[in-house]
Write a structure and sequence with these properties.
The complex is a heterodimer. Chain A has helices at about 25-40, 45-70, 100-105, 115-125, and strands at about 15-25, 70-80, 85-90, 125-135, 135-145. By secondary structure, chain A is an alpha+beta fold. In chain B, a hairpin with a 2-residue loop joins strand 1 (about 5-10) and strand 2 (about 10-15). Chain B has helices at about 20-40, 55-70, 85-90, 105-120, and strands spanning about 5-10, 10-15, 45, 75-80, 100. The chains are: A alpha+beta, B alpha/beta. The complex binds adenosine-5'-triphosphate and magnesium ion (MG).
């Protein structure tokens, strides 16, 4: 078996990192979700998908700010022959998520919220990966649309 | 910058800008409740026609505000939600919006007036016995 380099995309050349937003304060959440909306629109996704993505960015960027004091939001897009994909990555250097299963359960919150942010990401995106340990949390969520 | 709240008759009106920070949403709650207390209005209509993201935080603060307005004897109505926002909220599940809603500002004002009429009077007048 050949050992292919690890990649999110089958065709690396067409994946474009379209935006990197540092999250330091509440205004940065607005900048990040606008970037998400623009990225979705630029690859031809409709209003509903733009809204889903902006909402997800809002939830994850706020979590990074609230639980880790800040983080980074990266948006990558890929337009292939049959699919259009947006990959969202939110990374922080905070304490990590203690119990990922609990965090993804609707209603679980250690921050006095509704506990609906993480579960909303799961519902609004097509897949979601949580990598977390003390010192680093990275959430990658993807939206794939077939053309 | 705080979101302005206007008064039309006995109804408070506010139109939210497209993008609000968490702090602005919280300030709006504080301002609306203070105005309701001081102005003795019957209710509050929050127009979200321009708002393109309602996330779990904003949904919670708006619903909480409506609950507080209700406890104070008034009615709060959320008006003009965009279809894409409504769909996203439905997909997020859990009945995130726990308050009265209306299609537009006008409908919201009518809803406040109707609600006060069924309750038998304005908020500052005890209902007739
Ligand atoms: N980046 C993070 N670092 C550490 N813990 C996190 C992070 N993101 C989420 N969590 C944990 O996961 C829990 C659930 O997060 P979720 O976003 O679902 O709800 P919430 O933030 O508590 O409330 P809501 O988002 O509804 O206002 C949080 O309460 C927190 O304990
Ligand atoms: Mg959250």
């Amino acid at each position: 078996m050949t050992n292919h380099p690890r990649s999110e995309f089958p065709d690396e050349t067409s994946a474009i990192l379209v935006s990197v937003v540092e999250i330091h304060g509440q205004e940065d959440i607005l900048i990040a979700r606008q970037a998400g909306r623009d990225a979705a629109r630029n690859i031809g996704l409709g209003t509903v998908d733009q809204t889903r993505l902006a909402t997800v960015i809002s939830e994850l960027a706020r979590n990074a700010l609230r639980y880790a004091g800040g983080g980074q939001c990266r948006i990558t897009t890929q337009v292939a022959v049959l699919t259009r994909t947006i990959v969202l990555e939110i990374e922080d250097r905070g304490p990590g998520i203690d119990n990922v299963t609990a965090a993804l359960t609707p209603g679980f919150s250690t921050g006095g919220g509704l506990g609906l942010g993480m579960s909303a990401v799961l519902r609004l995106m097509d897949d979601m990966i949580v990598e977390t340990r003390p010192g680093r949390t990275m959430i990658r969520a993807q939206m794939v649309r077939h053309t | 910058m705080r979101v302005p709240i206007l008064k039309l008759g006995r109804v408070l009106l506010t139109s939210l800008p497209a993008d609000l920070t968490d702090q602005q949403v919280m300030d709006l709650q504080i301002d609306a409740l203070a105005l309701l207390r001081d102005d003795r209005a019957d209710g509050l209509v929050i127009d979200i026609t321009a708002v393109d993201v309602v996330d779990s935080y904003m949904a919670r603060v708006l619903s909480e505000t409506a609950k507080m307005v209700g406890i104070m004897g008034g009615v709060a109505v959320l008006a003009g939600m965009r279809p894409a926002v409504a769909l996203t909220l439905v997909e997020m599940g859990q009945n995130l919006i726990q308050m009265e809603t209306a299609f537009d500002l006008e409908g919201g004002v009518a809803k406040v007036q109707r609600a006060m009429a069924t309750r038998g009077g304005h908020r500052d007048e005890p209902p007739e016995v």
